[in-house]
Amino acid sequence: MEKEKLQFGDVQETALITLAIRASETARPNARIRDEKAKEIIDTLGVDVSKFDPFLSHEGVVARTILFREQLRELIGRYPDAVCVNLGCGFDDKFQQVDNGRIRWYDVDLPDQIAVRRKVFEDRERCVMLGGSALDGAWTKELPRAEMNLIVMEGVLEYFSREQVKTCLNMLCDCFAHGYLLAELHSPVLEKNTKHHDAVKHTNATFGWGTKSGKEYLALEPRMTLVSETSYNEEMKKYTLRGKLFALIAKNMNNRLAVFRW
Ligand SMILES: C[S@@+](CC[C@H](N)C(=O)[O-])C[C@H]1O[C@@H](n2cnc3c(N)ncnc32)[C@H](O)[C@@H]1O
Predict the structure, then answer these.
(1) 210 touches 190 (CB < 8 A)
(2) 1 located within any domain
(3) How far is the CA of 211 from the centre of ligand 1 (A)?
(4) pTM check: above 0.90
(5) In this structure, which of 87, 96, 252, 258 has its CB flanked by the most CB atoms within 10 Å?
(6) Per-residue tens of pLDDT for the chain, all 262 residues
(7) Which residues span the domain enclosing 206?
(8) Is the CB of residue 250 less than 8 Å from the CB of residue 226?
(9) Which residue's alpha carbon is nearest to atom 12 within ligand 1?
(10) Is there an atom of ligand 1 within 6 Å of 170 CB?
């Protein structure tokens, strides 16, 4: 029987880039990250991801997966009963990478994306999917109260305007008493160059507001403080000569993992 052809929204489609890269890295002999389910998801959904795995994006996604995972593990070590949210989760299964047997985890994305995710994932005992937007906190009412919330936004804020970033940050501080936000940020250079991005140029998505420093977020939400900011170059330069060269040439242009607290 022929598979139904899935329709993705412009930004929703970008979740296939990270999915493709996690699958192809997992298949390598010395895989730096492993996502055994990614290939199965591609096959089950019947999506063509052949154009979504160029070198720089590949290295960037591997780097960010490692940086986000290590940062999350460290925070979960400090807050073992945290309620965690992967906001804009796409097809990522970060819960499985960091679960300590106690955290409660919510995979949140736009309702049409969660409907596709439900074709390949099921809710688990402490890991539940929710349809909702980073621009509207209605979904947060479904979550239990917790002393600490850990919010992950990997590959999501890059597509928001400055106004939308503000709406999102304000929503998080209004809806969660205390939390950490682990966010991927991008530079003003990328903001103007979607057409030159090696993977995103193959989608209809457009990059939004880019920043030189996470400090620029603090003017939008004064309840937040910036804890740390790490360029993906720090991880990328460990593996390949091209990664090292890119770190030198594009010193301030690579994406960063910024950690905010409130
Ligand atoms: C590049 S993908 C990243 C997916 C996942 N975080 C990962 O790293 O594989 C961007 C994701 O952001 C989601 N997204 C876009 N706008 C959103 C919004 N307003 N609220 C929640 N998710 C959103 C898209 O549906 C998509 O799944």
Answers:
(1) yes
(2) no
(3) 19
(4) yes
(5) 87
(6) 455 678 899 999 999 999 999 999 999 999 999 999 999 999 999 999 999 999 999 999 999 999 999 999 999 999 999 999 999 999 999 999 999 999 999 999 999 999 999 999 999 999 999 999 999 999 999 999 999 999 999 999 999 999 999 999 999 999 999 999 999 999 999 998 888 888 989 998 999 999 999 999 999 999 999 999 999 999 999 999 999 999 998 888 999 999 999 9
(7) 12-261
(8) no
(9) 88
(10) no
Q: Would you call 175 helix, strand, or coil by DSSP?
A: helix
Residue 4 lies in a domain: no
User: How far does residue 198's CA lie from ligand 1's centre (Å)?
Assistant: 18
Distance CA 147, CA 241 (A): 44
Closest to 100 (Cα-Cα) out of 124, 123, 122, 126? 126
Residue 134 near ligand 1, beta carbon < 6 Å:
yes
Pairing of strands 256-261, 179-185: antiparallel
CATH number at residue 61: 3.40.50.150
Query: How many domains does the chain divide into?
Result: 1
